[in-house]
Amino acid sequence: MATPNTQAQEVITCDLCTKPTRKFCNNCQVSLCADCINKHVEKLDSLPHDIVPFKDRKVAFPECEFHSNQRCEVHCQRCDIPVCLQCIAGPHNGHKVKHIPEIFNEKKKELEEETKEIESTIIPQYKKKNEETESNISIITAEFDEMETEKEKHRKLWHQEVDAIFNTLGSLIKFMKENHLAALISHQSKINNCIPDMIQTVQQNKMIMKSKKVSEVTNYKSKLEEYRNMPTDIDFKLPSLKTNTVQGRELSLELGEYKASLTQTTLSSLTEEVSYLSLQKLLEQAKSITTIPTGLNPLYQVACVGVDEVWVSGEDKTIRRVDIHGSVRDTVTTTCKTWPDGITVTRQGELVYSDANNRTVNIVRHGRIETLITTPRGWHPGQLCCTKSGDILVSIYTTDFSQYKIVRYQGHPVTQEIDRDEDGEPIYKGGKYALYVAENNNGDICASDRKGDIVVVVNKSGRVRFRYDGTPARRKRSFDPRQIVTDSLSQIIVADYNNACLHILDQNGQFLRCVDKCGLDKPKGLSMDSEGRLWVVLVYSGEVKVIQYMK
User: How confident is the model at residue 85 (pLDDT cuts 50, 70, 90)?
Assistant: First the structure.
C-alpha cells in the first residue's frame, strides 16, 4: 500500500487577492478565486475570457517565429529555441525536444533554488567580507601613520645634509601605503559593486517566479556561478621600520629593501641609494594588463580618474570617460573649434581641458563647463598638468609657434613663468609641435620638448637641472618624446613615439630602463592611475594599453 504524502502542499493564491485560487483564465493566464471572477471579467470586458477550473488550466504557448498561426509546444534542446510541429518536421527534424510545460516547471524550480542561495548565503558572505576589508583598511592606515610618526622622530637625530634620505623614505612609505590602500579599496569596490547587482537579481528573479509568461522564465540566464566566485582576498605583508641609534657613532634605518646608514667616516651616495631602490621596484619585464578599444582614430590624449577609468580625446570636440572594459561612462562636448589640445584631472577628480582657439583652460563641474584661465592675446594654451598644491601648469605658445613657455597659474593669477635659462637663452625650442609638462614630487617641472627631441627638467625656481636626449637607451631610431609623467618614487616616464617604448629615468636624469615589448605602436598620450599603472595611448589603433611596470 502506498504511503500517503503528509507534506503540506503550497496553496496557490488568486492573482487579484490573497484567497486560494479556484479558477483560471486561459486567455489572460490569470489565477482567480470565486469572488474575483466577475471582477476580472468586468475589468477587461472588451477581451474574450476562457474561465476553467484551475486543474484544467492551459499553458499559453509562444507563437512560432517562422510559421504564422502555429504554437510552439516543444523546445529544441540542440538549438535552445521553442519550435512548432512544422519546425520539427523541417529544419529541426531529428533534434531532441522537450515539452514547454516541462521546461517551464524546471526553470521555475531552478529559479527558486538559485534565488534562495543568493539571498540567504552569498549576499551575507559578501557583506561579511566587505566588513573584514574595511577593518583591514583601518589597520593598514593606522600602521602606516604610526610608521610615519616613528620616521619623523628619528629624523631629528640625523644631520641636515642627509635630509634627502628621509625625503626618499617618506616617498617610499607613501608609495607603499598608497599601493596597499589602493589594492584594498579596489578589492572593497569590487565586493561592494557586486552586492547591489545581486540584490537586483534577487528582485528580478522573484518577479520572474511570479510571472506566467513562458518566455520570461525560459529566457532567464543564470548568474549564480558568477556570484559564487567571490573576489580573491589580497595577500599583503606590512614592512617594518627598523632603526638603530648609537649617538656619535652610527645612525641606521631599514624599510623593506631600502637601507640607509650614517657613520663618522662614510656615507653611501644618496643618488646610488635612490637608483638602487628604483631598480629594485621595477619589474624585470613590464606587463600589458589589458588593451582598451576606444573607437577613436586618431586618439591623442588620456587622463586617469582613480583606478579603472580614464578620460580620452581624439580629433573631435567630445571627451569620453571610458572604463577598463572599454565601456563609455560619460561624455563632455567641449567648446573647442576642433579638438582639445590637452586634458588632465584635478586631485578632486574634475576634468580640465585646454581650448587653444578660444585661448581658454576650462573645468567641468557637475556637468557644466567653466572657464578657469584665459591666456594673453597672441598666446594659446596647449598641454596641462594639475599639481599637488592645486596649481595648474600650462604650456603656452605664440600664434606663429615661435615661442613656448610653461606658466604656473594659481587660480587665474600667474605665479611663475618658465621660458629662459640663467644666460637668457630660450629653454624650449619654437616650432609647431606640442610641449608636454609634468610636476615631480620634489617640485621639479619636467617637459617633453618634441621640437628639440629632448626632455628638459627645471627645479622649482625654473633653473635647468638636466636635459635627456634618449641616447643612453640605445634605440634604433631617433628619440621622439611625447607625453611625460612622474611616479611616487619621483621617476620620470616619457613616451617615445618613434621607438614604440617608454623611457624611465630617476629624478636626477639617470636612465634606468625602457618599457618595450608591450605592443606600444606609436605611443603618444600617457597617464598614471592610483595603483601606479601606466595608461598609454596608441594613436592610430585608437587603443589604450594598461601597463604594469612596478612590483
Answer: confident
Contact 445, 428 (CB under 8 A): no
pTM above 0.85, yes or no: no
Which residues make beta-bridge pairs with 519? Answer: none
The answer on pLDDT for 217 being more than 90 is no
Query: Using alpha carbons only, what angle is made at residue 232 by residues 226 and 233, rounded to the nearest 5 degrees?
Result: 145
Strand 368-374 vs strand 379-386: parallel, antiparallel, or unpaired? unpaired
Separation CA 543–CA 551 (nearest Å): 25
CA distance 79 to 461: 72
- How many C-beta atoms surround the C-beta of residue 297 within 10 A? 13
| Helix, strand or coil, per DSSP, at residue 396 | strand
For 475, the grid coordinates are 634605440
pLDDT, one tens digit per residue, over 395-435 is 999 999 899 999 999 888 899 999 998 888 999 987 788 89
pLDDT of residue 164: 67
What is the Cα–Cα distance from 20 to 23, expressed in whole angstroms?
10
Q: What is the CA radius of gyration of the chain?
A: 33
* Residues 6+ positions from 252 with CB-CB distance below 8 Å: 243, 244, 259, 260, 261, 262
C-alpha to C-alpha distance for 254 and 268, rounded to whole angstroms: 14
The yes-or-no verdict on residue 246 having pLDDT over 80 is no
The full DSSP string for 419-447 is -B-TTS-BSS--SSS-EEEEE-TTS-EEE
Distance CA 340, CA 357 (A): 9
Cβ neighbours around 440 below 10 Å, total = 18
